[in-house]
Amino acid sequence: MPVVFLSRSIDEMKRLEEMSSTFQSSGVDHHPPEPKSQTERDEDSGGKEQPWEMVMDKKHFKLWRRPITGTPLYQYRVFGTYTDVTPRQFFNVQLDTEYRKKWDALVIKLEVIERDVVSGSEVLHWVTHFPYPMYSRDYVYVRRYSVDEENNVMVLVSRAVEHPSVPESPEFVRVRSYESQMVIRPHKSFDENGFDYLLTYSDNPQTVFPRYCVSWMVSSGMPDFLEKLHMATLKAKNMEIKVKDYISSKPLEVGSEAKATAPSSERKSEGSCGPARIEYA
């Protein structure tokens, strides 16, 4: 993962932590729109980005949105805190696809299609229920994670891709525009309770509903998903449910598992996503 991306993620996390700490100590109930980083100020000067607008403001959960220039869509940003689970547990539960099938009732299908043992990138096919009367959506996306022990931060990034082994199905609506970045910063260490997280998210769900309807669905659905993720982490912790430790598993140490999920020889003839194809950023 590029050093510039990690550095920017860490800077944004620190800035939001400082902002949150300042308002909590001053006793102010309502926060102004999120202050901009130097990168965002530079982008604004070129007319590329819109300002962030606060949508939800709770003590440990803050949600912003901003219009994506040239589209009817929004980009969303969440800054939150959990104090009853460890960063490692929360990070691993997010990544464990098998466990997610058990705790997320909206999942219809979730499979790792291909894995690059060198970079640790994975291509996944995710099919999920959408609110009635909409059709279910499916996503094909590449994800990659990084653990920076020196800066005490974890990063998980995902974005939509094409893959020859997962053609579009008439059963579902394919979401072709999707990006997500999660940054987790422990209060102390990876194995002690307490951390802040910063989630930046955007997608185009291909609906015919107006922008405000889509915004409402995302704005209400995102807190619900994050709380389900939090409760699944608590359940795994309290019931000692076995969850794969992705922090300890280095990319080169998962060779046997990667072989099991790599494209078969039959699929290779159709073209496959090798390391260069599934590299993220």
UniProtKB/TrEMBL annotation:
PROSITE patterns: START. Residues 28-49 have a biased composition (Basic and acidic residues). CDD domains: START_STARD7-like. GO terms for cellular component: mitochondrion. Residues 19-49, 255-281 are annotated as: Disordered. One of its GO terms (molecular function) is lipid binding. Pfam families: START. It is found in: Mitochondrion. Keywords: Coiled coil, Mitochondrion, Transit peptide. Residues 48-238 form the START domain. May play a protective role in mucosal tissues by preventing exaggerated allergic responses. This is StAR-related lipid transfer protein 7, mitochondrial. It comes from Physeter macrocephalus (Sperm whale). The gene is STARD7.
